[in-house]
Design goal:
3 domains; Jelly Rolls; single chain; mainly beta; 44% strand; 409 residues; 5-stranded antiparallel beta sheet
Length: 409
């Protein structure tokens, strides 16, 4: 019996399946570093190895002389390896590297896990230069997308690049990063822009409305010239903009357009944004209310007497802007007063007398009281050109004592 027992044990051990280790996943973050594009001179897409990385970084270096290139580079993701979509901002600059004094370098980053990751050199036109691109990725906590060396940022979007001006672009819709149209559109042409080119900018509604389907903001008339042209877009809340391009154009002239968005709080003045660079012009709009201006000296006039009085005398071709007033009314019986304007022939404002205010009537008309304009430093009322400003008490003749501030211009 023992013999058969040992034989059975031996057979069980001999027939047992060999032990194999079970893969339970990577125990540390996986990283990928690869030179995705090497010395390219034209557009191409390169798929990079995917080990589950969720943070992606691309850096590029352009070698050779490239004074005015056409360049667009971005990181893309795909679910099937066929249809790709951008997951980073576009790098569209060829910056000069102040460290090497030669190589022109930059980059962009992106985040998120996708089945397929690619580096897409959308366009590159520079006959005497080439571009090399390096990809680096790892799996870790997702950061915020950013730009390396400020070559791409959330506020800048390329509308079209190096497109023949006779291309029928039609209407283009873009998302606004700050849910506001505030910013500038920059346009340049490879030669003088053809005459008659224009871009209509409209905001699409934040909510679904029947009519209107869009709200016009501005129409940009492109000048027939070379160099960058800047068009400021108003501060208007919207998360989608529609740009409609019109004009015949010509196949021999290409053009590029970039939208440089800024947060609405960054606008200094309407129509002048903080992203102005050398060569841009603009000035603060004039303040139409002289009472609110901190550069216009205010004058004062005395209010005093018991009869109709001329507070401020007329000056030819000038108006009177009343910025504020305060005075008391006192007398034995009911006291009221009213500001008027007119022309003084015999007595103050006796010709063409016109009321500027209602009648100031104290709550207790039989006791002294005060009348004051509201605060705020704005114009209370305006006297027409070349007219006197007068204060009329009622027939009871109350004493009026105080002062008035004004601007006459």
């Amino acid at each position: 019996m023992k013999k058969y027992f040992y034989i059975s044990i031996f057979l069980l051990v001999a027939w047992a399946a060999p032990a194999r280790a079970q893969f339970i996943g990577y125990s540390s973050p996986q990283s990928v570093q690869v030179k995705a594009i090497n010395a390219a001179t034209s557009s191409q897409r390169a798929i990079v190895p995917n080990l589950g990385q969720s943070v992606h970084s691309v850096t590029y270096t352009i070698t050779g002389s490239c004074a005015a290139p056409v360049f667009d580079l971005r990181i893309e993701g795909s679910n099937d390896g066929v249809n790709f979509f951008a997951i980073s901002q576009d790098a569209v600059d060829v910056p000069f590297n102040p460290l090497s004094q030669a190589a022109q370098s930059g980059g962009v980053t992106a985040s998120g896990y996708y089945p397929v990751i690619a580096v897409n050199l959308v366009s590159f036109t520079c006959p005497t230069a080439s571009i090399s691109v390096w990809y680096s990725g790892t799996s870790t906590t997702l950061p915020t997308n950013s730009a390396i060396f400020q070559q791409a940022n959330i506020g800048r979007q390329t509308l079209w690049q190096n497109v023949p001006t006779n291309t029928a672009l039609g209407s283009i819709q873009i998302s606004t990063p700050f849910e506001n149209a505030s910013g500038s559109i920059w346009i340049t042409c490879s030669a003088a822009c053809p005459a008659g080119m224009s871009v209509a900018v409209a905001a699409l509604p934040l909510v679904n409305v029947v009519s209107p389907t869009s709200f016009a903001l501005s129409t940009l008339s492109v000048a027939a010239s070379t160099g960058w042209q800047r068009f400021d877009i108003t501060n208007a809340p919207t998360n989608v903009l529609q740009l409609t391009v019109t004009g015949a154009g010509t196949g021999s002239v290409n053009w590029t357009a970039i939208y440089n968005f800024v947060p609405p709080s960054s606008q200094v003045f309407s129509g002048l944004n903080v992203n102005c660079v050398n060569g841009c012009t603009g000035a603060a709009p004039s303040i139409t209310d002289p009472c609110q201006s901190n550069t216009i000296l205010k004058s004062s006039a005395t209010i005093g007497g018991t009869i109709n009085q001329k507070v401020v005398a007329a000056v030819a071709a000038k108006q009177i802007f009343v910025c504020g007033f305060t005075f008391t009314l006192s007398g034995a019986v009911a006291q009221t007063a009213q500001f008027n304007f007119g022309t003084t022939t015999t007595t103050p404002c006796d010709t063409g007398t016109t009321a500027l205010t209602g009648t100031f009537t104290p709550q207790d008309v039989n006791n002294g009281s005060s009348v004051s304009s509201p605060g705020g430093g704005f114009t209370q009322f305006t006297v027409p050109t070349a007219k006197d400003l007068c204060l009329f008490p009622n027939a009871a003749g109350p004493a009026q004592n105080g002062y008035l501030t004004y601007v006459q211009q």
